[in-house]
């Protein structure tokens, strides 16, 4: 049973992430029972509103389908750790795609997954010095999908890991909802030395180096924010973007019935 599950997954997903799951020490609980459709819908109350450009794009089914390529996601540690990791992931993608504002119906933190593409991108996000993942003529690498994947340096390796040509066909991230969720999970699960993966941080597998300790980079939701956009947002007490991420997380952990864990903020962390 377990091995035929792995074999069928190998055709659909990167072998790397599936192999990583073999190290899993704890009992298997499907993501669909940790995040039921009802819970998903109460988290994303407005994603299919007419006002949301991503209306009807991000479905529960495509989220669950995408997680099957990443068996270690939400499946390490105690039930609390698993739920907290999933809540942290959903909170971060909510900030990236939010349609909320301070007086929005149901509050600002009920409006995640409202956008699928960056509005008014200020550039094509092409780093022409990157020769490993060269930009394809005429293609633009602005934010798309739940994590707002950006830059050729991310579209290239994400596509390679997930089985599409990210450099030639970046648009697919905004056109295929399963691929869109997979790019967000790929970003979440991938370590970029010396930067740990968001996953490792949320499940207690991150080991801080001396440099990390000197920079206050201790595990918690704030460190995940640091991984995602620390260069712009961390080390600034009271940053509104950081607080928006925290607001989503605080609402979601309540819906999952777990606590936030320590180090919510990155106000006193240096970026990587
Ligand atoms: C680490 O955090 C403390 C406050 O908790 C702060 O005073 C210190 O400046 C921070 N260190 C760095 C390197 O940001
Ligand atoms: C059919 C469809 O949704 N096409 C979209 C694919 O993505 C590009 C840009 O990312 C959009 O402009 C298209 O509308």
List the SSEs and their pairings:
Blueprint: H1 2-10, H2 15-21, H3 31-34, H4 37-43, H5 60-67, H6 79-96, H7 152-162, H8 172-175, H9 177-189, H10 198-202, H11 210-214, H12 221-233, H13 240-256
The structure holds 2-acetamido-2-deoxy-beta-D-glucopyranose (2 copies).
The site of one 2-acetamido-2-deoxy-beta-D-glucopyranose has 4 residues, from loops.
What's the Cα radius of gyration?
Answer: 18 Å
| CATH T-level topology of the largest domain | Lysozyme
Mean pLDDT: 93
In N-to-C order, the SSE pattern is: HHHHHHHHHHHHH
Spatial shape: globular
Beta percentage is under 5%
Bound heterogens, unique: 2-acetamido-2-deoxy-beta-D-glucopyranose
Number of helices: 13
Distance separating the two termini: 42 Å
Main beta sheet? none
Notes on the structure:
With 272 residues, this protein is mostly helical. It has two domains: 23-115 and 191-256, Orthogonal Bundle (Lysozyme), CATH 1.10.530.10; 117-176, Endochitinase, domain 2. The chain is 44% helix and 0% strand. The protein is built from 13 helices and no strands. The longest helix has 18 residues, at 79-96. The chain binds 2-acetamido-2-deoxy-beta-D-glucopyranose (2 copies). One 2-acetamido-2-deoxy-beta-D-glucopyranose binds next to helix 8.
